[in-house]
Amino acid sequence: MELTGAEIFVECLKEEGVDTIFGYPGGAVLFLYDELYKQHDKINHILVRHEQGAVHAAEGYAKATNKPGVALVTSGPGATNAVTGIADAYLDSVPLVVFTGQVPRALIGNDAFQEVDIVGITRPCVKHNFLVTDVNDLATTIKKAFYIASTGRPGPVLVDIPKDITTARCEFHYPKEITMRSYNPTVKGNKRQVRRALDLMLEAKKPVLYTGGGVVLSGAAHQLTELAHELGFPITNTLMGLGGFPSMDKQFIGMLGMHGTYEANNAMHHADLVIAIGARFDDRVTGNIEKFCPYAKIIHVDIDPASISKNVKVDVPIVGDVKSVIIDMLEELRSRSERPDAAALAAWWQQIKEWQGADCLKYNQDVNAAIKAQFVVEKWWEVTNGDAYICSDVGQHQMWAAQYYKFSKPNRWINSGGLGTMGFGLPAAMGVQMAFPEETVACITGDGSIQMCIQELATCLQYHLPIKVISLNNGYLGMVRQWQEFFYQKRYAMSYMEALPDFVKLAEAYGHVGMRIEKVSDVEGALKEALALKDRLVFMDFITERENNVFPMVPAGAGQNEMILV
Amino acid sequence: MRHVISILMENEAGALSRVAGLFSARGYNIESLTVAPTDDATLSRLTVVTRGSDEIVEQIVKQLNKLIDVVKVMDLSQYSHMEREMMFIKVGVEKNTACEAVKRLADIFRGNIIDVSDKTYTIELTGDRSKLDAFVNALKDYRIIEVVRSGSMGIARGEASLHI
Ligand SMILES: Cc1cc2nc3c(=O)[nH]c(=O)nc-3n(C[C@H](O)[C@H](O)[C@H](O)COP(=O)(O)OP(=O)(O)OC[C@H]3O[C@@H](n4cnc5c(N)ncnc54)[C@H](O)[C@@H]3O)c2cc1C
Ligand SMILES: Cc1ncc(C[n+]2csc(CCOP(=O)(O)OP(=O)(O)O)c2C)c(N)n1
Ligand SMILES: [Mg+2]
Q1: Residues B13 and B57 in one domain
Q2: Has A51 been annotated as catalytic?
């Protein structure tokens, strides 16, 4: 049967099993919206209040479910508003398919009304993008988009659809499978390399497992836990890898990197073997690359060959999917009679215990003093039994959320690591809450970040999303202020948030519940009260210590073991 | 080191800008770049000449492979290979003496004079980069009006080849 482009668009979404999309209408996508209107029982469209919110919401949905998130925006300003979210998804390897409207084909290149070359604009920050120039290609293009976004190293794919394509007609046929001669990600790791890795693991005296977002993306938390337990090695996670291994496990030595723990960074620095799994040696992790892991051999498992030996030369590269490679490693380990050197490991753990003795995340919460952000996060962890979805914005509060909410499951920690996009948290939480309506979803945010996508509070009302917003209000762009305190002799240039709105009234104006919490003794009660308000969005504005700092900290240019502790 | 990298890619709109964009976005150097369709009309072959340390060139090859439109990449510098570049050069020959001298130089370099006018000769010359450089240099005493160079293209010797 012949269908219009708009009908094909909706059919394709259904074929891909898409149930929820996030978007904002406009001229170029009117036919698409008309078709969504007709089929609203098939696909749930969430109307955001700014296109950046649509893309972050789709990211939140994707990060929580490991399924591709979908966003739909109009041409011109709709498309450019989506760019920040697309770049965010690119840096954090989030599977996303973003549809943008485009002016009719005949007008392309004419500086037509609301025309931008969004394919050109996004080229450096997408995994791939397409401009559909023939309705006959629409279905295959959409199929390819989902395939590319969700396989290999995941990422955002943009499909630009000219308006006249949405009314053109053709026979609809959805390809069941797709093969592309130019795109065949390697899933299975090379057996010989796996054996070499095992050789090194069994010889190591001071090994560390350093695991990242790739574990979460691969759905391999379970396999990783098994491997770590069989080896008995200490394990550290990147910011993106948190939840990939249970934080309460005694082998877990915390996050590493700029705001990582003393024990994790020291273990990396002194290790003789680093086993990197789905982590990309980001500069926030390595610190000064010249001083990084001076004594270690490095094994690196990553699905993207370009991640390997990009920043740090590795000894055993293994290109493949984390889950598949770990399964092979376990099999190889079980087929051998040797086991890791127990005496050496015991001595290594002894050393690590000493570093742990520094208790680097310790803080004092005086009941009569100002509320510390760390305390709020820790209490929230307690009252939610460590089981909530935590979406974060960007800044000091993000680091405290990462340090003090001890994740025990993957896909529950949803934040913007690579691009570090303020404004990510609230819309991401919407995406998560849409995917899991019954779960507790929190947005941990700052007084600066929350104002970057505050308009989404209206979306939350419209769709009854009972997100718990935990604002750690320090009256500063705290992360910026911290750097200015340390490295710019306290010249607080533009990091002071003068004229903050009354967030309680603001929340109420949007139809939600607002609370202001100023006393330490009120923290736990407020959190519990908010939790009890199951079907309401609660905006908790915690007035926190103003000049609190995130520790430990590896200053720029320093080695991993050169941390500022307090 | 100088590397000659050959790329087979989908002959699609935008593919070339992905490659060019990759080089500029990641700060890789491009000495020359040539591209044209192959015997298979769905494929283009692109040759890019770049410079960089082994690590950088390894990253360049990996990043190129990562582009969805790129089907295959070969660093010709790792093989015994041949390189050719083509040049058109238009020279002013107003003086009688110039006519003869330019023609003689073209012959020595095995170039062809492919167009003449009262005042100009246009010579076509193919060779590796240094030969073309030498020819331009040899003509420096004459009035060079235009130089058009194609950029290098390359192919491996013997059995080694880049195909799908
Ligand atoms: C204010 C701020 C402070 C920060 N401080 C820190 C810090 O202290 N410590 C820290 O760690 N980070 C920190 N970050 C985050 C940092 O910028 C990086 O985003 C992060 O370190 C990258 O994490 P990752 O290495 O796990 O890689 P990710 O970005 O999660 O990338 C995943 C890697 O796994 C690979 N991969 C994906 N899927 C698979 C699969 N199926 N199989 C195999 N491999 C796969 C990918 O190719 C990629 O190489 C901070 C960010 C901000 C904004
Ligand atoms: C869109 C964007 N602009 C600027 C920055 C730089 N930046 C990083 S953290 C930060 C301050 C965040 O302030 P706030 O949300 O109040 O969090 P706090 O650090 O105070 O907890 C800024 C401005 C950024 N990451 N993102
Ligand atoms: Mg703040």
Answers
A1: yes
A2: yes
Q: CB contact, 8 Å: B41 with chain A? A: no
A-B interface: how many C-beta pairs under 8 angstroms? 38
pLDDT digit string, tens, across residues A185-235: 999 999 999 999 999 999 999 999 999 999 999 999 999 999 999 999 999
**Marked catalytic residue, from A11, A35, A51, A545:** A51
Q: Which atom of ligand 2 is nearest to the CA of A452?
A: 1
Atom of ligand 1 nearest to the CA of A419: 53
| Å from CA of A283 to ligand 1 middle | 10
pLDDT value at residue A1: 84
A114 is catalytic: yes
| pLDDT tens digits, one per residue of A137-166 | 999 999 999 999 999 999 999 999 999 999
- Residue pair A283/A220 in contact by the 8 Å Cβ criterion: no
Residue-level pLDDT at B97: 83
In chain A, what percentage of residues exceed pLDDT 70? 100
Which ligand 1 atom lies nearest to the CA of residue A398?
1
| CB proximity B65 to A under 8 Å | yes
Q: Which residues constitute the domain of residue B90?
A: 82-153
The catalytically annotated residue of A258, A268, A479, A515 is A479
The answer to whether residue A544 scores a pLDDT higher than 90 is yes
Please give the pLDDT value at position A566: 81
CA B84 to chain A, closest CA, distance in angstroms equals: 27
Helical residues (DSSP H) of A125-178, grouped into ranges? 138-150
CA angle at A309 for the pair A304 and A312, rounded to the nearest 5°:
130
Contact A338, A203 (CB under 8 A): no
Q: Read off the pLDDT band of A556 (50, 70, 90).
A: confident
Centre of ligand 2 from the C-alpha of residue A474, in Å: 12
Nearest 10 degrees: Cα torsion A449, A453, A454, A457: -130
Residue of chain B minimizing CA distance to A303: B66
- Residues B20, B71: one domain? yes
pLDDT (tens digit per residue) in A19-47? 999 999 999 999 999 999 999 999 999 99
Domains and CATH numbers, chain A: 2-171 (3.40.50.970), 191-356 (3.40.50.1220), 373-543 (3.40.50.970)
Residues whose CB is less than 8 angstroms from the CB of residue A84 and which lie 6 or more positions away in sequence, other chains included: A52, A55, A419, A421, A423
What is the distance between the alpha carbons of residues A472 and A80, in angstroms, rounded to a whole number?
30
Which one of B60, B78, B96 terminates a domain? B78
A127 interaction partners in chain B (CB closer than 8 Å): 68
The count of domains in chain B is 2
Amino acid at A451: Q
Global pTM? 0.97
Q: For residue B14, is it within any domain? A: yes
Say how many Å lie between the CA of residue A89 and the centre of ligand 1: 12
Residues 6+ apart with CB under 8 A from B107: none
- Rounded to 10 deg, the angle between the A478-487 and A396-404 helix axes is 100
CB interface of B with A, residues 105-124, below 8 Å: none
